[in-house]
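Homework help thread (please don't just give me the answer)

Our assignment gives two proteins as sequence + structure token strings and asks us to describe the second one. The first is just a warm-up. Here they are:
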Amino acid sequence: MRTRSVRIWSVFVTATVTLGVPQLAAASIQQSAVVSENPVDFTPNVVATTAVGHPIVNAISQTGSRMWAGGHFERVENSGRTQQYTRNNLVVFDANTGAVSSIAPSFDGAVWAVKTAGSSVYVGGDFRTVNGVTRPALVKLNATTGAVDTAFKAPFTGGRIDQIKWRSGRLIVGGSAGKKLLALDPATGADTGYLNLAITDPIPNAWGTVSVYDFAIDPAGTRLVATGNFQKVNGQVRTRAFMVDLGTTTGSLAPWYYSSFTKPCSTDAPRRIAYLQGVDFSPDGSYFVITATGQIPKYRSEIGEMICDGAGRFETSVVHPTRPTWINYTGGDSVWAVSITGAAVYVQGHFQWLDNPMGHASLPGPGAVRRTGVGAINPSTGKALSWAPGKPAQQGGKDLYATSTGLWVVSDSLQFHGEYHRGIAFCPLP
């Protein structure tokens, strides 16, 4: 029986691949530079209350000049902290001024996903009612009024929706609800049958039921990569992650798989056993990055193989990778979310370090660089970029939202770059 080795020395691990590393390319949202460390001053804040002592923003999306931010909170305040507003788990505000909108749909549970699409806004989470209307896990709102679209009714009686994407007129949603990954009619909410995958077999001792935690679709709309708590898809081994080929009339399980995902990280905490979390595709779809919790790799020999408390890059065209192209480790703290813009791979969680493969229990090893809660990684080398605004967090953020003008960062943090920004910050492009 192997025993866990003690990690003492530090190296930065870059896996060797035969294809080499592609040059930086344009993202679906093109950004030619790294965003500013200094956030704008006008964003609203979530407010701690007796009922919600630890408010958090889990997701954000934009339609026109409006931002829609959802999470777990019951009050927000303006940027000057002079006026408060009752907002039950969703707040709408102006993207250019931060002014809180009078639109105020009320959710009876936490919001985990928001997707704007034209005149509509789709919201997912673990709620059951919205504005008093029964809509378990998923609802469609009017983007002008915030009213529930009663014509849209998803086929869920419970569960949670964690991610929402739009692809060729189909609304694709993932979570613990229903079939775990579905393509819905955006007008009625009916299951189109485009995705009919049997996602089964929860990972032993992992928290919760079978669930898709996150998924990303490449810019061409031809591939989907998902992470979560499962071991099989259509009867084939796909522990913690799988890829789908998105065809014209149906989505089918792709042969891609990284077999080391069947192995555990060092944690035995139920909430970290199904350790893969965020995922995003590169600008040109040639690679994707997956983030993870799970504490450090279980054995020293697995450094560079296991994505545990870190972020790892995979080349899309390599069907059976032997190693990630690179892994950037935090040394013992979770990485929840990732956004690739072409200039950087942004990550966030509740970590304190990057470039820290030999760190242990959140302590730095040789070569580690201080990055609190959020950081940026060079897409080619896998090394941390100099961008280091600092965002101390308890739980950490679950979403990063890149636009043509900058990067929205949502979380449970009270500060960003030394300034008070509870829950929401926006870093503009220089």
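The one we have to describe:
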Amino acid sequence: MRIRKSFTAAVALGLLAVTAACSSGGGSSSGSKVINWWTWDPNQAQAYQLCAKAFEQANPGVTVKITQYDVVDYFTKLTAAFVAGDAPDAFQNSVQYFQAFAGQHQLLPLNSFISGSHFNMGQYSIGASEWKYTDGKQYALPMDWATAGIYYNKAMLASAGYTAKQVDSLTWNPQNGGTFGKMIARLTVDKSGVHGNQPGFNKSQIKTYGLGVMNSGDFIGQTTWMPLVASLGWRLGNTTMWPTQFNYSNPKFVQSMNWIRTQTGKGYSPPFGAFSSGSGQATVADYSLLGSGKVALTIGGSWEAATFDKLHGVKVGTAPTPEGPDGTRAMMSNSNGNNIWAGTKNPQLTWKWISYQESPACQTLAGKTGTFFPSIGSSMNAVTKSLAKQGVDLSVYNQALARHEIFNAEVYKNGAQMQQTEVALLEGFFEGQHNDSVFAQMQQQSQKILAGS
């Protein structure tokens, strides 16, 4: 899944301090048969524990130690471990930090391992291309994929007069919002029971917002605004791999951001910071807002599907994101990567572990926990069937993948600096501190950051 929490300035500064692997310490002592693997995701830590047990049984004397750190601390700890020469043998990585780590020679190229073991790179349905560096080498295996969909309170939509079929065929444009905009207005209810599209609606006294949080400072917007603006044909970078600028001043993006701010101004969507602990802090989870009745519909991550399904007292439906003016749907996906640290003392054993993690057997076993979507097509199909028996319907996401409505996220340089700079500017727009001129500023800043070393 894409990392959604903001990282602290300490992370950004820590990344600048990283040097090339400076010690042979490694995550495993010389001659040891302990493999250290790190992740920030507690769900994946638990899921891969199942694979670790099977791997240990098949490889007597080998121990896989899985360590999970909170996402806010994860990259700071990983950076410090690089500098100390005591990093884990392998670890989960985000494309946001790929360039920094590969450029500083912290990652082991996997090409010789892939060819030497005849590893099947063709098994992946999505994500493999995201982990090739500028030198053309493969530095990670894709672990998962993630995109966005609509989650809605079935009772609230039925009460407002909508059917599931209507939610499945929503349209959107940045001028009047299309049928998506009309639905949001109808679903919004003030404390007197007046809907957003009715006379007498009081936007300062909201009981239920029609649309969840869309104005977070996430500069990529994967689970907020990206599916909307992408349906217009807009993409974040001027190229998919190693762009030289982000297209923030494009009129399609500017119009889309203004439409989102208008929804807040009308009272249809929460004002900036309404459900967060402050600027740069985590927003209350989509499922918490839907489960509490504070919102009727939200755009959320595919990885949240099982959680939405388990909400107490609320029946949740899942639908594809709206079509753009020409009938196009487009959702971003990114795959987290499985990297080997360049300083490991056990490269062959570590490869044996991550290549097992990246096998259909492990991906199917771990994926059935419902906490992530495997990048391997056969495993994704098996997971879909397994979760369907539990009442979790993933057909929306599988159909989007089959219809080629999902595109890979850009792979770019200097992710920590980009986040620190662009989030502050975008938040200022949603808070009303900046006008449209901020988007040209954001684009100029992206050019400087992407051109940096």
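TA reply:
I won't write it for you, but here's a hint about the kind of observation we're looking for: The longest helix spans residues 42-58.
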